[in-house]
Amino acid sequence: MAEDKADVLLLGPAMPLIVEGIERFFTLHKLWEAKDRDKLIADLAPRLKAMAGGGGGHAAIEGSFLSKFPKLEMISSFGVGYDHVDAKWCAANGVTVTNTPDVLTEEVADTALGLLLCTVREFPQAERYLRAGKWLGGNYPLTASLRERKAGIVGLGRIGKAIAKRMEAFGLTVAYHNRSKQADVSYSYFPSVVELAKNVDILMVVTPGGAATKNLINAEVLQALGPKGILINIGRGSAVDEAALVKALKDKTIYSAGLDVFADEPRVSKELMDMDNIVLFPHLGSASIHTRQAMGQLVVDNLLAWKAGKPPLTPVPETPWPPKK
Ligand code: NAP
Asked: pLDDT (tens digit, 9 = 90+) per residue, 12-33?
Protein backbone atom coordinates (compact mmCIF):
# COMPACT_ATOMS: atom_id res chain seq x y z
CA MET A 1 0.00 0.00 0.00
CA ALA A 2 1.32 3.47 -0.89
CA GLU A 3 2.54 5.51 2.08
CA ASP A 4 0.20 8.32 3.13
CA LYS A 5 2.54 11.29 2.88
CA ALA A 6 2.14 14.20 5.29
CA ASP A 7 1.48 17.63 3.75
CA VAL A 8 4.07 20.40 3.88
CA LEU A 9 3.19 23.95 2.88
CA LEU A 10 6.17 25.79 1.38
CA LEU A 11 5.55 29.52 1.75
CA GLY A 12 7.92 30.97 -0.84
CA PRO A 13 10.40 30.03 -3.58
CA ALA A 14 13.19 27.76 -2.36
CA MET A 15 16.31 26.11 -3.80
CA PRO A 16 15.83 22.84 -5.74
CA LEU A 17 17.46 20.81 -2.94
CA ILE A 18 14.66 21.89 -0.57
CA VAL A 19 11.83 21.46 -3.08
CA GLU A 20 13.05 18.02 -4.20
CA GLY A 21 13.91 16.94 -0.65
CA ILE A 22 10.41 17.77 0.58
CA GLU A 23 8.71 16.26 -2.50
CA ARG A 24 10.52 12.99 -1.94
CA PHE A 25 9.09 12.41 1.52
CA PHE A 26 6.01 14.64 1.77
CA THR A 27 3.14 16.04 -0.29
CA LEU A 28 4.42 19.49 -1.14
CA HIS A 29 2.13 22.52 -1.60
CA LYS A 30 3.67 25.72 -3.00
CA LEU A 31 1.74 28.65 -1.60
CA TRP A 32 3.26 31.28 -3.89
CA GLU A 33 2.31 29.30 -7.02
CA ALA A 34 -1.30 28.63 -5.96
CA LYS A 35 -3.86 30.13 -8.38
CA ASP A 36 -6.19 30.65 -5.44
CA ARG A 37 -4.15 31.03 -2.24
CA ASP A 38 -7.19 31.39 0.00
CA LYS A 39 -8.65 28.14 -1.32
CA LEU A 40 -5.35 26.27 -0.80
CA ILE A 41 -5.14 27.60 2.76
CA ALA A 42 -8.78 26.69 3.45
CA ASP A 43 -8.28 23.16 2.02
CA LEU A 44 -5.12 22.51 4.03
CA ALA A 45 -6.16 24.28 7.24
CA PRO A 46 -7.93 21.35 8.97
CA ARG A 47 -5.04 18.89 8.44
CA LEU A 48 -1.75 20.75 7.87
CA LYS A 49 0.95 19.94 10.44
CA ALA A 50 4.12 21.30 8.84
CA MET A 51 5.37 24.35 6.93
CA ALA A 52 8.68 25.46 5.47
CA GLY A 53 9.85 28.95 4.61
CA GLY A 54 12.51 31.55 5.17
CA GLY A 55 15.13 32.98 2.83
CA GLY A 56 12.87 35.86 1.72
CA GLY A 57 10.17 35.66 -0.95
CA HIS A 58 7.21 35.53 1.39
CA ALA A 59 5.45 37.65 3.99
CA ALA A 60 6.32 37.50 7.69
CA ILE A 61 4.88 34.35 9.31
CA GLU A 62 2.55 35.94 11.83
CA GLY A 63 0.29 34.42 14.48
CA SER A 64 -2.81 35.67 12.63
CA PHE A 65 -1.80 33.49 9.64
CA LEU A 66 -0.64 30.52 11.70
CA SER A 67 -3.85 30.41 13.75
CA LYS A 68 -5.68 29.26 10.59
CA PHE A 69 -3.94 25.88 11.02
CA PRO A 70 -5.10 24.33 14.32
CA LYS A 71 -3.07 21.12 13.84
CA LEU A 72 0.22 22.88 12.99
CA GLU A 73 3.23 21.32 14.77
CA MET A 74 6.34 22.38 12.88
CA ILE A 75 7.85 25.27 10.87
CA SER A 76 11.21 24.51 9.24
CA SER A 77 12.84 27.84 8.37
CA PHE A 78 15.84 28.49 6.10
CA GLY A 79 18.54 30.75 7.59
CA VAL A 80 19.79 31.24 11.12
CA GLY A 81 17.84 34.50 11.57
CA TYR A 82 14.15 33.82 12.14
CA ASP A 83 12.81 37.31 12.85
CA HIS A 84 10.25 36.69 10.05
CA VAL A 85 8.54 34.03 12.24
CA ASP A 86 6.45 34.90 15.28
CA ALA A 87 8.37 32.45 17.49
CA LYS A 88 6.61 33.69 20.65
CA TRP A 89 3.22 32.81 19.16
CA CYS A 90 4.63 29.42 18.15
CA ALA A 91 5.94 28.78 21.68
CA ALA A 92 2.56 29.67 23.18
CA ASN A 93 0.74 27.42 20.71
CA GLY A 94 2.94 24.33 20.80
CA VAL A 95 4.49 24.84 17.35
CA THR A 96 8.19 23.99 16.96
CA VAL A 97 10.30 26.38 14.85
CA THR A 98 13.65 25.26 13.46
CA ASN A 99 16.37 27.36 11.78
CA THR A 100 19.74 26.55 10.15
CA PRO A 101 22.50 27.63 12.58
CA ASP A 102 26.19 26.53 12.65
CA VAL A 103 26.38 25.31 9.03
CA LEU A 104 26.70 28.93 7.85
CA THR A 105 28.86 30.36 10.65
CA GLU A 106 32.28 30.16 8.94
CA GLU A 107 30.94 31.44 5.59
CA VAL A 108 29.32 34.49 7.14
CA ALA A 109 32.46 35.20 9.18
CA ASP A 110 34.55 35.02 5.98
CA THR A 111 32.15 37.47 4.30
CA ALA A 112 32.33 39.81 7.29
CA LEU A 113 36.11 39.99 7.06
CA GLY A 114 35.89 40.45 3.29
CA LEU A 115 33.46 43.30 3.74
CA LEU A 116 35.66 44.85 6.43
CA LEU A 117 38.76 44.70 4.21
CA CYS A 118 36.82 46.06 1.21
CA THR A 119 35.56 48.95 3.30
CA VAL A 120 38.84 49.88 4.98
CA ARG A 121 41.07 49.41 1.93
CA GLU A 122 38.44 50.48 -0.68
CA PHE A 123 39.08 47.42 -2.88
CA PRO A 124 35.79 47.66 -4.87
CA GLN A 125 36.39 51.38 -5.54
CA ALA A 126 40.01 50.70 -6.55
CA GLU A 127 38.89 47.98 -8.96
CA ARG A 128 36.33 50.33 -10.51
CA TYR A 129 39.16 52.90 -10.85
CA LEU A 130 41.32 50.41 -12.78
CA ARG A 131 38.46 49.28 -15.05
CA ALA A 132 37.64 52.91 -15.82
CA GLY A 133 41.19 53.31 -17.19
CA LYS A 134 42.08 55.85 -14.49
CA TRP A 135 45.28 54.04 -13.39
CA LEU A 136 46.98 55.35 -16.55
CA GLY A 137 46.49 58.82 -15.11
CA GLY A 138 47.96 58.01 -11.68
CA ASN A 139 47.83 55.63 -8.73
CA TYR A 140 44.67 55.08 -6.70
CA PRO A 141 44.78 57.33 -3.59
CA LEU A 142 46.14 55.86 -0.33
CA THR A 143 43.45 54.38 1.92
CA ALA A 144 42.73 53.83 5.60
CA SER A 145 44.26 50.74 7.24
CA LEU A 146 43.41 47.95 9.65
CA ARG A 147 46.67 48.64 11.47
CA GLU A 148 46.40 50.10 14.96
CA ARG A 149 42.64 49.63 15.06
CA LYS A 150 40.42 48.19 17.77
CA ALA A 151 37.35 46.20 16.83
CA GLY A 152 34.05 45.99 18.70
CA ILE A 153 31.58 43.21 17.93
CA VAL A 154 27.90 43.81 18.68
CA GLY A 155 26.42 40.30 18.99
CA LEU A 156 29.20 37.92 20.01
CA GLY A 157 27.32 34.67 19.29
CA ARG A 158 28.25 31.81 16.96
CA ILE A 159 29.08 34.08 13.99
CA GLY A 160 30.46 36.90 16.16
CA LYS A 161 32.96 34.51 17.76
CA ALA A 162 34.08 33.18 14.34
CA ILE A 163 34.60 36.81 13.25
CA ALA A 164 36.53 37.57 16.45
CA LYS A 165 38.89 34.64 15.78
CA ARG A 166 39.61 35.99 12.28
CA MET A 167 40.06 39.53 13.60
CA GLU A 168 42.62 38.31 16.12
CA ALA A 169 44.52 36.62 13.28
CA PHE A 170 44.58 40.01 11.53
CA GLY A 171 46.18 41.56 14.64
CA LEU A 172 43.09 43.45 15.85
CA THR A 173 42.17 43.87 19.50
CA VAL A 174 38.59 42.66 20.04
CA ALA A 175 35.92 43.84 22.48
CA TYR A 176 32.17 43.15 22.42
CA HIS A 177 28.66 44.02 23.52
CA ASN A 178 25.85 41.50 24.13
CA ARG A 179 23.00 41.68 26.60
CA SER A 180 24.98 39.21 28.71
CA LYS A 181 28.70 38.61 29.25
CA GLN A 182 30.04 35.45 27.62
CA ALA A 183 31.77 33.00 29.99
CA ASP A 184 33.99 31.35 27.34
CA VAL A 185 35.88 34.38 25.98
CA SER A 186 38.47 36.79 27.37
CA TYR A 187 37.59 39.79 25.13
CA SER A 188 36.63 43.00 26.98
CA TYR A 189 32.88 43.19 27.60
CA PHE A 190 30.86 46.42 27.45
CA PRO A 191 27.32 46.28 28.87
CA SER A 192 26.51 49.42 26.83
CA VAL A 193 26.82 49.61 23.04
CA VAL A 194 27.65 53.35 23.29
CA GLU A 195 30.56 52.60 25.65
CA LEU A 196 31.80 49.90 23.27
CA ALA A 197 31.62 52.34 20.33
CA LYS A 198 33.61 54.94 22.31
CA ASN A 199 36.39 52.42 22.87
CA VAL A 200 36.80 51.03 19.32
CA ASP A 201 37.12 52.30 15.75
CA ILE A 202 35.54 49.34 13.95
CA LEU A 203 32.01 48.37 14.96
CA MET A 204 30.92 44.97 13.57
CA VAL A 205 27.18 44.31 13.97
CA VAL A 206 26.14 40.62 14.02
CA THR A 207 22.91 40.63 16.02
CA PRO A 208 19.58 39.05 15.11
CA GLY A 209 16.81 41.32 13.80
CA GLY A 210 13.45 41.92 15.51
CA ALA A 211 12.10 44.41 18.01
CA ALA A 212 14.88 43.94 20.61
CA THR A 213 17.63 45.14 18.24
CA LYS A 214 15.65 47.68 16.16
CA ASN A 215 17.87 50.75 15.58
CA LEU A 216 20.34 49.51 18.22
CA ILE A 217 22.98 51.38 16.20
CA ASN A 218 21.58 54.91 16.35
CA ALA A 219 22.93 58.47 16.07
CA GLU A 220 24.38 58.34 19.60
CA VAL A 221 26.32 55.14 18.87
CA LEU A 222 27.66 56.56 15.59
CA GLN A 223 28.70 59.76 17.36
CA ALA A 224 30.54 57.62 19.93
CA LEU A 225 32.26 55.63 17.17
CA GLY A 226 33.72 58.88 15.89
CA PRO A 227 35.42 60.27 12.76
CA LYS A 228 37.89 57.37 12.37
CA GLY A 229 35.07 54.89 12.86
CA ILE A 230 34.00 52.17 10.44
CA LEU A 231 30.62 50.47 10.78
CA ILE A 232 30.11 46.99 9.31
CA ASN A 233 26.65 45.41 9.39
CA ILE A 234 26.43 41.69 8.58
CA GLY A 235 23.54 40.97 11.00
CA ARG A 236 20.18 42.52 10.10
CA GLY A 237 19.38 45.84 8.42
CA SER A 238 16.81 46.72 11.08
CA ALA A 239 19.56 46.88 13.74
CA VAL A 240 20.98 50.08 12.19
CA ASP A 241 19.07 53.37 12.00
CA GLU A 242 19.71 53.93 8.29
CA ALA A 243 18.69 57.61 8.28
CA ALA A 244 21.14 58.27 11.13
CA LEU A 245 23.83 56.32 9.27
CA VAL A 246 23.34 58.32 6.05
CA LYS A 247 23.62 61.55 8.06
CA ALA A 248 26.71 60.32 9.93
CA LEU A 249 28.42 59.39 6.64
CA LYS A 250 27.47 62.68 4.97
CA ASP A 251 28.67 64.91 7.79
CA LYS A 252 31.70 62.66 8.49
CA THR A 253 30.61 61.77 12.02
CA ILE A 254 32.04 58.35 11.05
CA TYR A 255 34.61 57.51 8.39
CA SER A 256 32.94 54.78 6.37
CA ALA A 257 30.56 51.81 6.36
CA GLY A 258 30.23 48.34 4.84
CA LEU A 259 26.74 46.87 4.66
CA ASP A 260 25.57 43.37 3.72
CA VAL A 261 22.03 43.90 5.05
CA PHE A 262 19.52 46.75 4.70
CA ALA A 263 16.37 48.01 6.39
CA ASP A 264 14.14 47.38 3.34
CA GLU A 265 16.16 44.94 1.24
CA PRO A 266 16.38 44.22 -1.63
CA ARG A 267 15.53 47.92 -1.94
CA VAL A 268 18.56 50.04 -1.02
CA SER A 269 18.09 53.75 -0.40
CA LYS A 270 19.25 56.08 -3.15
CA GLU A 271 21.24 58.04 -0.59
CA LEU A 272 23.35 54.97 0.23
CA MET A 273 23.61 54.04 -3.47
CA ASP A 274 24.90 57.50 -4.34
CA MET A 275 27.78 57.43 -1.82
CA ASP A 276 31.10 56.23 -3.15
CA ASN A 277 32.90 55.99 0.19
CA ILE A 278 30.93 52.96 1.41
CA VAL A 279 30.74 49.31 0.33
CA LEU A 280 27.40 47.59 -0.30
CA PHE A 281 26.92 43.81 -0.63
CA PRO A 282 23.57 42.27 -1.71
CA HIS A 283 23.06 40.15 1.47
CA LEU A 284 25.53 37.48 0.49
CA GLY A 285 26.87 36.51 3.93
CA SER A 286 26.08 32.79 3.56
CA ALA A 287 25.61 32.82 -0.21
CA SER A 288 28.08 30.18 -1.42
CA ILE A 289 26.90 26.98 -3.13
CA HIS A 290 28.51 24.84 -0.40
CA THR A 291 26.89 26.65 2.50
CA ARG A 292 23.46 27.18 0.95
CA GLN A 293 23.30 23.43 0.16
CA ALA A 294 24.10 22.63 3.80
CA MET A 295 21.41 25.08 4.97
CA GLY A 296 18.85 23.61 2.54
CA GLN A 297 19.64 20.07 3.68
CA LEU A 298 19.07 21.12 7.29
CA VAL A 299 15.60 22.48 6.38
CA VAL A 300 14.73 19.05 4.95
CA ASP A 301 16.42 17.10 7.76
CA ASN A 302 14.47 19.01 10.42
CA LEU A 303 11.23 18.03 8.63
CA LEU A 304 12.38 14.41 8.42
CA ALA A 305 13.20 14.32 12.14
CA TRP A 306 9.71 15.71 12.86
CA LYS A 307 8.13 13.11 10.53
CA ALA A 308 9.98 10.31 12.36
CA GLY A 309 8.75 11.61 15.72
CA LYS A 310 12.32 12.48 16.75
CA PRO A 311 13.50 15.73 18.37
CA PRO A 312 14.15 18.47 15.77
CA LEU A 313 17.84 18.94 15.00
CA THR A 314 17.94 22.71 15.47
CA PRO A 315 14.92 24.17 17.30
CA VAL A 316 15.11 27.91 18.04
CA PRO A 317 15.50 28.83 21.73
CA GLU A 318 11.88 30.06 22.05
CA THR A 319 10.47 26.63 21.08
CA PRO A 320 12.58 24.00 22.87
CA TRP A 321 11.74 20.34 22.41
CA PRO A 322 9.35 18.79 23.42
CA PRO A 323 6.72 21.45 22.63
CA LYS A 324 4.20 22.49 25.25
CA LYS A 325 0.73 21.89 23.73
P1 NAP B 1 23.60 33.74 17.86
O2 NAP B 1 24.63 32.68 18.10
O3 NAP B 1 22.25 33.58 18.47
O4 NAP B 1 24.25 35.15 18.28
C5 NAP B 1 23.52 36.31 18.39
C6 NAP B 1 24.22 37.21 19.41
O7 NAP B 1 23.55 38.47 19.44
C8 NAP B 1 24.21 36.63 20.80
O9 NAP B 1 25.51 36.65 21.31
C10 NAP B 1 23.29 37.57 21.59
O11 NAP B 1 23.78 37.70 22.92
C12 NAP B 1 23.40 38.87 20.80
N13 NAP B 1 22.16 39.65 20.94
C14 NAP B 1 20.90 39.22 20.72
N15 NAP B 1 20.03 40.22 20.97
C16 NAP B 1 20.77 41.29 21.36
C17 NAP B 1 20.46 42.62 21.76
N18 NAP B 1 19.16 43.03 21.84
N19 NAP B 1 21.45 43.45 22.08
C20 NAP B 1 22.74 43.04 22.01
N21 NAP B 1 23.12 41.80 21.64
C22 NAP B 1 22.13 40.93 21.32
O23 NAP B 1 23.33 33.90 16.29
P24 NAP B 1 24.37 33.73 15.08
O25 NAP B 1 24.28 32.37 14.54
O26 NAP B 1 25.69 34.27 15.49
O27 NAP B 1 23.66 34.73 14.03
C28 NAP B 1 23.52 36.09 14.35
C29 NAP B 1 22.69 36.83 13.33
O30 NAP B 1 23.43 37.04 12.15
C31 NAP B 1 21.43 36.11 12.84
O32 NAP B 1 20.36 36.21 13.75
C33 NAP B 1 21.15 36.83 11.53
O34 NAP B 1 20.32 37.96 11.78
C35 NAP B 1 22.53 37.32 11.09
N36 NAP B 1 23.00 36.60 9.89
C37 NAP B 1 23.25 37.31 8.75
C38 NAP B 1 23.69 36.64 7.61
C39 NAP B 1 24.00 37.38 6.34
O40 NAP B 1 23.93 36.77 5.28
N41 NAP B 1 24.35 38.64 6.39
C42 NAP B 1 23.85 35.25 7.63
C43 NAP B 1 23.59 34.57 8.82
C44 NAP B 1 23.17 35.26 9.94
P45 NAP B 1 22.77 38.03 24.15
O46 NAP B 1 21.63 37.07 24.02
O47 NAP B 1 23.61 37.84 25.38
O48 NAP B 1 22.35 39.45 23.98
From this structure: 999 999 999 999 999 999 999 9
